[in-house]
Amino acid sequence: MASTTNFLIFFLFIITFIFFLFLLCYFVRLKFLCKCEICQCYMTSSWYPQFTNLCDWYTHLLQKSPTRTIHIHVLGNTITANPKNVEYMLKTRFDNFPKGKNFSTILGDFLGRGIFNVDGDLWRFQRKMASLELRRNSIRSFAFEVMNNEIQNRLIPLLANNKDEILDLQDVFRRFSFDSICRFSFGLDPKCLELSLPISQFAISFDLASQLSAKRAMHVSSIVWKIKRFFNIGSERKLKKAIKLINILAQEVIRQRRKLGFSNHKDLLSRFMQGDIVNDTYLRDIVISFLLAGRDTVASASTSLFWILAENPRVAERIREEANEVLGQNQQLTSCEQLRDLHYLQACVYESMRLYPPIQFDSKFCLEDDFLPDGTFVKKGTRVTYHPYAMGRMEELWGVDCLQFKPQRWINKDGVFSQENPYKYPVFQAGVRVCLGKEMALVELKSMTLSFLQRFHVELAHPSHHIPRFSPGLTASFHGGLPVFVREIKSTT
């Protein structure tokens, strides 16, 4: 009896200790979170009406800084929107700015040891494997075949059958990209875009795990989420449950691929399973990495682009006009090579991601004391973040009209799309870690956009010229989705 009483007393003491620890962290966060050593800016309650998104507040601070670099003292985080600093981190001193153990720990339960969560030899090995496969013409042809099939046989019929009802395009794009990446990467079809719109439990759990993993980085100290994980409470309990389901379903993907055989299949997973390392943990991390790269980023970019197109119907009309000029009147794409001559469409996609990048910021960790090119001293162990969202809003980089959507800024005097310095526009990262799936993602995004606009107009269900609100997550997503009306274009023939 005495031992039971002692146990209860000890248990209550632990719970009370955790409660006061949470309170302490909360008040420390309120007082110190937003102290900016370089800008000498402080967040007060007055910033809430002005900024609906944290990324907009960071943009404000970076715009005020002469070097376009700030330091958030309590987070140990140096944030920059300076292209020279970005090039220094991603190219010149790449080895001194890895993802780091802190980042790997935060996302480790979700991403495991996949390519987005590792450094060194393991990262180089996975990148080499992925690079060899993605460069194959057979893979690119297979990817276009999968995407085109998904567009013509599922996406277009779905839109046609919901043309007079409010439709959440963000949800539709997530389903479309989830189907596409699963068919391309794993040779399996979750059928999320069937007309009945079934909800994939895998996709739901994936979204939740992404959001909750990202929230870990928002804690002032990692000890908060680690304590919650240890006692399996709150958000960590939800995260554990979501990851458990993800693991079960990822293992089922692997089992199905083994059952069907992979020697004659074109999908990426089959090609990886023929390699030297084929243990299930490794393959599980590959599955999750493919999904994060091929589903979330494309869905995010698609949602932002169509929000902009709904706000700018003349831009959508110009995309249709260009397609008619290049492909012929109302002709569909038959190969990804045809996209190369659609310069205005390419410019619209790039301009949309300049303002609303799928990955709004990316962090590295400094291994040894260093100085950034703008003179900022970076102490060993400091988190260093470059901010593509803020960089797209810097006047010295994009001009006084930097807040305006202007695709023509990407078109040269000959009417041809012209690339920008990747360190000025690090939407696909740059340097050594530049995105391997960049071209494939662009093909998917442009193919879907063109096929959509050739058949339909899009109108916002709740018109507003305010900037979107974003939900927490590893990729940008609109809070509340993107509710629209889809109107079929009447044929003039």
Describe what this molecule looks like in 3D:
55% of the residues lie in helices and 8% in strands. The chain has a single domain, classed as Cytochrome P450 (Cytochrome p450, Orthogonal Bundle). The radius of gyration is 24 Å and the shape is globular. The protein has a four-stranded mixed sheet with strand order 1-2-7-4, sandwiched between helices. Strands 3-11-8 form a three-stranded antiparallel sheet. A two-stranded antiparallel sheet has the order 5-6. The protein has 18 helices and eleven strands. A hairpin with a 4-residue loop joins strand 1 and strand 2. The protein starts with a helix and ends in a 5-residue tail after the last strand. The protein has 493 residues and is α+β, with helices and mostly antiparallel strands. It comes from Solanum bulbocastanum. This is Cytochrome P450. GO terms for molecular function: heme binding; iron ion binding; monooxygenase activity; oxidoreductase activity, acting on paired donors, with incorporation or reduction of molecular oxygen. Its cofactor is heme.
